[in-house]
Amino acid sequence: MSSPARFMPLGGTAGSLARYRVLAMIVGTGLATLCFVGLPLQYLVHNRWPWTAVVEIVGPIHGVFYMIYLLACLDLAARARFRTVQLLGMVGAGLVPLLAFYMEHKVSQRVKAQLALGEDAPPGPAASFWAVVTRRPGTFRPLAAPAGGGDRAEAGEVDERAGEEPVGDPAPRH
Predict the structure, then answer these.
(1) Which of 10, 32, 108, 163 is least buried, going by the fewest C-beta atoms within 10 A?
(2) Contacts of 172 (CB under 8 A, 6+ apart)
């Protein structure tokens, strides 16, 4: 039987992690430059032009890269089976100075450990939910027989989508 982990493979996660890491560094550096160089210069010289150039140049660049960073976060979270709270932490890291560097390190550790597990990696909530929603054959098995006796499963009736596999069989096959 296919498990939910096999339903949503980790394919492409290494590339997604590399994109996330590069964008986290760019966004973190841009935000640190804005907060620790640009804004102090701007306020110390009372908004006179040559000193406001850092904010005027780095600010929009950081904004564009932050939007691309959000897409990289969504991509990595989907591929690495992150929960919503973990995704929100990644998104928030691009808004708090220096947090992007810490979060990048933690996310990299987690994804590399998950990649090392390969097929044995636990399924994420999205994989289990998606298997139920799409009712893909062999991806989700209920823990107990459905109410009403489960006569289809007991009779060994075959689901057309699943091929030769009985419907509703709660026992895992090895």
Answers:
(1) 163
(2) 1, 141
Dist. CA 60–CA 68, nearest whole Å: 13
Distance set, CA 119 to CA 3, 4, 169 (Å): 10, 10, 23
How much is the pTM?
A: 0.64
- More confident position, 108 or 6: 108
| Residues facing 158 on adjacent strands | 166
172 token code pair: 């895992």
Q: What is the residue whose two structure tokens read 């990644």? A: 90
2 CB burial (10 A radius; 0-12, 13-18, 19+): middle
Q: Which of 56, 82, 69 lies closest to 28 in space, CA to CA?
A: 69
Q: How far apart (Å, rounded) are the C-alpha atoms in residues 97 and 159?
A: 54
Are the C-beta atoms of 10 and 79 separated by less than 8 Å? yes
